[in-house]
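For homework, think about our next protein:
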Amino acid sequence: MRPNIVLFGDSITQESFRSGGWGASLADAYSRKGLTKPPVATTIFFGANDAALAGGTSERQHVPVEEYKENLRKIVRHLKECSPTMLIVLITPPPIDEEGRMEYARETYGEKALTLPERTNETTGVYAKGCVELARELGVRSINLWSKMQETDGWQKKYLRDGLHLTAEGNAVVFEEVVKVFKEAWLDASEMPYDFPHHSEIDGKNPEKAFQQKCL
């Protein structure tokens, strides 16, 4: 049975399965790979919506930071109960390009767009910090995407297409960071065997031999 990798998240994770997305890249990297005892990994990527400002235009998405942390805690504990050996990775929300969000609002809603921000990078940073602290508390791995992306000059337009959701370059950062964590654990795609032999390993006169060796 091939290993299962489960991605929990919001619209950023949903969009990751589009062309060039980090979820699609992850699926490609681990395609056709299997183990006798398949490892299972889970990424938990929430916070971008939770960090919406109370009183702002996206207030209905707002979740107080302590409640956000408690929700993550419940998810992690449930997953650990399901499988104590599961690799669990918490991913912080990405940074927010506040001007980019305002530009998006003006382009989308025109004169109806409000002048007050719906999210701020500072507030999102509080949620990112809480995510990393919780990962440390629960003994699981984390990726501080909020900090990582801001290490690059011009990250606002390079990594975020509307001030919030990821560009192709932004998806590449997430993919690279997730794969790095997987490799640091025990889930390196390059070291995992294929489910079936490569065509170059199959003898046309005796094709069964390659499959028999793969099953040993």
Remarks:
- Residues 88 and 102 are 34 Å apart (CA to CA).
